[in-house]
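FORM 12-B: Structure-to-Sequence Request
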């Protein structure tokens, strides 16, 4: 396959522009790889695409050149928005911000480009653009990140024999909150309504150990979350897990988990093996998923007039959970996780932000 200078320049622009449509960028990379002399099988392996996709877009380019890589027009009403306008909306949305705001709205961008608000809205929906939304992320700076990921994920995917794997963490500062007025119950067409303000009655801290095999949870509630409370929780785990099993504990790097008193207790109980998650990587601890269940199903809309009532409610919820436990199944390998993070880091670096 031979490319002229204009074709190569356009393909490179489509492939390298970090904010191009992903499908068009991949088609461009397929054609560029073909121009470099690779066969369809080699292209599919290099770009991690299906062989049929490599064959299809290579043939489309040979037949129609650059136009062959664009989506074919669909039957129906004739288009009222040209490709140049679509490209302008996408480029302006992704690469600029308005002077008087942090992001574009459909109305402000329509006024900027001289288009209708509905046309901008349709283009945004078609390309999955939502400038009003923002997600958060954080990369771990732990120098042992790779080793810790492999260690913890290895436990999840291939737990040792004659051992129990427990994911342990504490949910601190659980507030006992009571609304300042009665909650209006739900009625047809009207959701339940509660006052936005509330009265605080104190806080509690929950230590929890999730058994990844059975899904059962060992819980312990305390007024504080110091090393002594953590040590007492380890003692409770030791009492409840049968003596013939080793205990592998996945937990974070909190200072309360590494005090001399805790280390001495662990030396006296060699069946306990601690596996620390990397710093800033709570997503690797499955008990966090269980804490999410507790929050959404019990705490978020619960009302408690005292810490005692809150603790009773939490204990009852744990008992109900353990009557029908549902273990979480970890599916991704360590290599898949590390490859995903590597791709994300490459994307961040290429974005030049």
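FORM 12-B RESPONSE
SEQUENCE OUT:
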């Amino acid at each position: 396959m031979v490319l002229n200078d204009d074709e190569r320049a356009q393909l490179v622009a489509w492939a390298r522009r970090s904010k191009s449509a992903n499908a068009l960028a991949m088609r461009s990379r397929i054609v560029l790889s073909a121009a470099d002399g690779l066969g369809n099988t080699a292209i599919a392996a290099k770009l991690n695409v299906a062989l049929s996709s490599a064959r299809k877009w290579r043939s489309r380019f040979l037949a129609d050149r650059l136009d062959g890589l664009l989506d074919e027009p669909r039957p129906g009403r004739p288009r009222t928005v040209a490709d140049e306008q679509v490209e302008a909306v996408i480029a302006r949305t992704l690469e600029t911000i308005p002077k008087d705001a942090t992001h574009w709205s459909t109305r402000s961008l329509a006024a900027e480009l001289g288009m209708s608000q509905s046309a901008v809205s349709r283009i945004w929906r078609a390309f999955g653009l939502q400038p009003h939304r923002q997600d958060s992320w954080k990369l771990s700076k732990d120098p042992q990140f790779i080793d810790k990921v492999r260690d913890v994920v290895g436990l999840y995917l291939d737990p040792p024999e004659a051992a129990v794997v427990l994911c342990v963490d504490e949910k601190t500062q659980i507030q006992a909150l009571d609304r300042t007025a009665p909650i209006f119950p739900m009625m047809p067409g009207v959701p339940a309504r509660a006052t936005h303000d509330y009265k605080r009655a104190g806080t509690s801290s929950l230590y929890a150990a999730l058994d990844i095999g059975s899904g059962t949870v060992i819980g312990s509630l305390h007024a504080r979350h110091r090393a002594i409370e953590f040590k007492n929780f380890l003692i409770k785990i030791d009492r409840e897990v049968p003596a013939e099993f080793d205990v592998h504990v996945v937990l974070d790097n909190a200072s309360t988990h590494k005090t001399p008193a805790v280390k001495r207790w662990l030396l006296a109980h060699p069946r306990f093996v601690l596996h620390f998650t990397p710093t800033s990587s709570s997503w690797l601890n499955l008990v966090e998923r269980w804490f999410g269940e507790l929050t959404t199903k019990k705490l978020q809309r619960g009302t408690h007039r005292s810490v005692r009532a809150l603790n009773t409610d939490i204990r009852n919820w744990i008992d109900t959970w353990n009557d029908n436990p549902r273990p979480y199944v970890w599916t991704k390998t360590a290599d898949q996780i590390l490859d995903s993070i590597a791709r994300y880091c490459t994307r961040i670096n290429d974005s030049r932000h």
